[in-house]
Amino acid sequence: MSGHKGCCSTALIPNQIDHPWMAVDASIFPYTADQLAAITGYVLNNGSSTGPVTVNFLRGGTLAPPLPFSLIVKPGEYKSFTVVGVDTIKITPSDSVATGELNINVNFNPR
């Protein structure tokens, strides 16, 4: 690929993330909104969790307000999503102990 000056290299920016989480009010996602076109994936809340978690999607960093799309995932459940232009995912537990998995596939060039 000589002469190719594309913005994104899969060696530098992975297009799939599989991230185990322990529910703390924390943000997960290493991209900026101008790099993203669309993400799809799922959030799993393990059956051993003691309560649900809320998954919010943000555009504009950790201080941005959540988009009007969120997921509530109960213990033993998983929910899938497709969202465009998100740079932060925030998993917030209720007053519970929760663990799970976040799986994301990034499409940098949806056509």
Automatic annotation (TrEMBL):
Domain Endospore appendages core, first and last residues per copy: 7-108
Designated name of the protein: S-Ena type endospore appendage
Organism classification: Bacteria, Bacillati, Bacillota, Bacilli, Bacillales
